[in-house]
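Researcher: Please predict.
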Amino acid sequence: MSYGHMGRTTLDVLTSLAAVMFIVLTVILISDPSRALAEKSDTRRTDAVRAIMQAVLTLQAQDPTNFYAFQQSIAGAGAPPRVLLGGGGNCSGDWGSQCSDAILADNCVDTAAYLGDYLSAIPFDTSSPLFSERQTGYYLTLTSSTVEVGACNPSSNPIFLSRPQ
């Protein structure tokens, strides 16, 4: 019996197309691309946190005078415990799960002025349109006993490095 469409009816074609679409959808759901993108973003954030921490520790070891000025700049930002790294302007408000307004200073610390010589480029969190070189998406806590650098808005677990001074 010939149907005139190479032996296939419209129902056969639609059923085959639905089966293929189901398989493709299942593969996409199993591979979970949003989780993979979040992990990739967190990896970039972790690398940036390491680079900033290394720059702070290098500044502390190689240029104590400038490190003291950096500490004074952080204290002058009105720092509760954390200060947002950036261009030195206004940074009040919430900037992510780890940088709420209650624990963040109202002003950013000028990252380029103090750490620019120790970083190839000022890192900022590119996964959010909130962040730029003016408000990087990375925070710093610098006390007499601790240096802590972290990401303001990680995808999953907090991302930070902490080291006693």
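Model: Residues 126 and 132 are 7 Å apart (CA to CA).
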